[in-house]
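Page header: ASSEMBLY MODEL / two components / 338 residues total.
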Amino acid sequence: MIRLLAALLLAAAPAAAQVQGVLLDDPVEMPSFALDGTATTRFSDADLQGRWTLVMFGYNSCPDVCPFTMQNLEAAWSETSLRVRPDNIPQVVFVSVDPERDRETVADYAVFFHPDFLGVTGRQEDIDRLVEASDSFYRLMPPDSSGYYEVQHSSSVLVIAPDGTLRAKLQPPFDPGRTAEFLSMLQIQYRREMIQ
Amino acid sequence: MRSLLLAAVLSFPALAHAGDIAVTEARVALAPPGARTLAAYMVVANAGAAPRALAGVRAEGFAMAHLHHSMEKDGVAMMAAMDQIEIAPGGSVAFAPGGLHVMLMGPRKALAVGNEVVLTLIFADGAEIAVTAPVERIDAGS
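Prediction written out in full:
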């Protein structure tokens, strides 16, 4: 069935050089974790249930790529929102892998790109569980003479289905039309699977 | 809002010349709240007959500024500091989101749309060019 969807996606994108996402062969269970942004915004494994979720890893002291990715993701998310059923519009979550610097700013950071986006961070063990389970990656680089350090991190975005399992990863540059196409096909596939 | 911004840009074009070097489209991306690093973008063109090399940059109102290159390797986003950026005779180099950028570190105050940042580009031959870069909200695809 996954192969069939892949074939459909290829057919739907004749200019297929630009792949916007990769489907996982099998759904991957997400671990238990608890992250937060402000005192009132929390994000845990329980929040994955019953809705689609897109998770991006990054850090706030990232001047170029993170804002660029968030803007592209916002455009792709807006396009997706026009194409799918309202209850299938994904929740976008920015997870900072740099809690030391970002605890105070991460919620506002995400909202800067869209009022509905969630920005969270938390204890390293919670972040690491989510990163490891999704086969993602991050590394804090050694600080320079001013104390600034870069953070290397996965560039792909997790696509988590309403049953809480990881189904796919979106890949930059998040072309709005093609990403929306990818997500809506994935959702159709998911609904069929749920009926069977 | 966007047309207002466009009008502002048109009436104060961020254009700097020094000899054979011309800098256009200089701008600083409006940063999310609390950002300690910002990015500036521009196009640097070399109309001369000899290659030129950009070797550094200073930014008023910031503790430090570096020439940086964002890249993706094996699905991991990372940055590299650039010691020198060559500009071929008749060629140009574009600093744009997701690639080359001037990384501005340690802002002395929060910047809003409409503020300006003076950047001084330092070339390997010692030449310096000052560029005024307005702060703009940079959206995807615009």
